[in-house]
Amino acid sequence: MIAKILLPVLAIFLFCQATVTFAGSWTNRISVTVQGHGPDVVLIPGMTCSPAVWDGTVAHLEGHYRLHLVQVNGFAGAPAQANGQGPVLQPTVDAIAAYIEANHLKSPKVIGHSFGGTMGLLLAIQHPKDVGALMIVDAFPFTGLLLRVDDADAARKKAEKMRKKTMDQSQDSYARDQKKFIRILVKSPAGRDLATDWAVDSDKSVVAQATYEDLTTDMRPQLQNLKIPVTILYPWDPKSGYSQVMTDWFYQQSYTTLPNKKFVRIDNSFHFIMFDRPQEFFKQVDKFLASP
């Protein structure tokens, strides 16, 4: 009888103990929530996204790993703080590195989606001892390729126009644009609703600056120096307008000089693979985390 009473109480206690929010010098750029127990894994969400983008992943993993969920200030309703002025990408990467080092995480594995993948790659290049292995979920070493240009200088003019448009538009206009944009990124209706809410709730000045920096940062020259294992997970869907062969080529060419890489294509998915193909996503995450 006593056991029946104590077990639920113990379960609640353990769950509460597994969810911790850490504070430190990095908190003007990010906040981090920790859940679960086991080897350390850092999860970085994409542009405008909440760490809740990983909720399904957390439910799948938290019994076996200690998960560090990054919230970028200015995204998904979080106050912009220092991200509201000046550069966003590099200072946020520096903040993640400071968090890893201050909390004595020993080469954790890092998973980043979209802009979070960009941050994860930059983190691994600049702080190789802070990343044991990296999974990039649909991101490129040079996002400017999506603008159909070959280098950062060529991307800068187009990216500047995009930044100015976002900065100058009203909040209502920004919200309308985000709602239209999210439709091409998520197939799952529930996932689309969540991603749309996060985008609309994001500080548009932070989004404008982060997008500009994402499009004009070219990490391809540094890829050859990155020795850790990197898994590149990317989607393909018939509605994309591109063949599987063309899609494979595009990602493979983008990372051609990266020495220790693995490509995994997830079919019938848009950009938010964790929403559109969750079980396949979890399967690939399990393989990544189980590898040496």
Task: Please give a structural write-up.
With 292 residues, the chain is an alpha/beta fold. 46% of the residues lie in helices and 15% in strands. Strands 1-2-4-3-5-6-7-8 form an 8-stranded mixed β-sheet, sandwiched between helices. It is globular. It starts with a helix and ends with a helix.
Task: Summarize this structure briefly.
With 292 residues, this protein is of the alpha/beta class. The chain contains 11 helices and 8 strands.
- Radius of gyration, rounded? 19 Å
Query: What is the general shape?
Result: globular
What is the number of E strands? Answer: 8
- Percent range for β-strand residues: 15-25%
Q: Into which percent range does the helicity of residues fall? A: 40-55%
Q: Output the structural class.
A: alpha/beta
